[in-house]
Task: inverse folding
């Protein structure tokens, strides 16, 4: 029964307390995902200050002071212990140690085991599959380690590069919400992408085997 006190719909009692406490760095084929530090301020400023990079994300271009504040507060979170929290990790190239972007996993609901991912890259490092590879690692954290049931990505329809990452991950487009939000002074049409825990094993294996499908690959969007 929906909302029955004390139980998830899957029959997991609420007193079982999921938490995410990863060992860092998280290694993928070409990347290290790790907490951001004050030493990353210049690299973060290099892309988070760019208007083009920030066009479809829910924040304005950042200055050094705001980046320092974020590093001291929100981005200092390295574990998820309760709903409403988010963990942001730097995307570092394993071969060179360069910080090329960052990824985030939000834990929206303990009861519904819901989460959301987001990603942002320095444009100098776009076009190599790094965002897809890093976001795949965040799906793994969300499903395999935190035990989420459903992870979403909310994307402005004009942000084709981002929608292509979601498709490449195997997330399913479920919604197209026309003029859903007044976003930075314009009506934004939002695409809703999602993946369920039951769909994840196929996509975990497919991408882990090095087969990074193109965004137009039909099998990538059909669970
Ligand atoms: C969204 C964003 C992260 C996508 O970056 P991206 O570089 O296109 O994504 P990836 O790093 O996954 O790279 C995929 C591209 O690299 C290519 N590629 C090259 N080598 C690859 C490899 N080994 N594996 C996978 N893809 C590879 C892919 O074909 C793809 O190119 P295509 O879209 O022309 O087919 C980037 O545009 C960005 O930071 N935008 C600003 C912030 C933003 O809007 N974030 C999303 C908010 S919802």
Result:
């Amino acid at each position: 029964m929906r909302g029955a006190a004390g139980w998830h719909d899957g029959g997991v009692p609420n007193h079982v307390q999921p938490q995410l406490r990863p060992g860092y760095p998280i290694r993928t084929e070409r990347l290290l995902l790790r907490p951001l530090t004050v030493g990353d301020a210049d690299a973060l400023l290099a892309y988070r200050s760019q208007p083009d990079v920030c066009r479809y994300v829910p924040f304005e271009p950042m200055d050094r002071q705001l980046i320092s504040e974020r590093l001291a507060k929100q981005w200092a979170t390295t574990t998820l212990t309760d709903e409403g929290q988010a963990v942001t990790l730097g995307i570092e190239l394993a071969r060179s140690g360069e910080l090329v972007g960052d990824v985030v996993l939000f834990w929206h609901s303990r009861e519904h085991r819901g989460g959301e991912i987001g990603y942002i890259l320095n444009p100098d490092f776009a076009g190599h599959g790094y965002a897809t590879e890093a976001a795949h690692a965040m799906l793994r954290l969300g499903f395999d380690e935190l035990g989420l049931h459903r992870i979403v990505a909310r994307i402005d329809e004009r942000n084709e590069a981002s929608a292509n990452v979601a498709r490449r991950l195997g997330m399913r487009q479920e919604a197209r919400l026309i003029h859903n939000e007044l976003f930075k002074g314009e009506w934004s049409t939002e695409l809703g992408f999602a993946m369920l825990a039951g769909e994840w094993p196929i996509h975990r294996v497919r991408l882990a085997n090095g087969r990074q499908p193109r965004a137009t690959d039909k099998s990538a969007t059909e669970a």
Q: What stands out?
A: The pocket of coenzyme A is lined by residues 53, 56-57, 118-121, 126-132, 155, 159, 161-162, 164-165, 212, 214-215 (CB under 6 Å). Helices lie at 41-48, 51-54, 64-72, 130-145, 160-169, 200-208, 218-221.
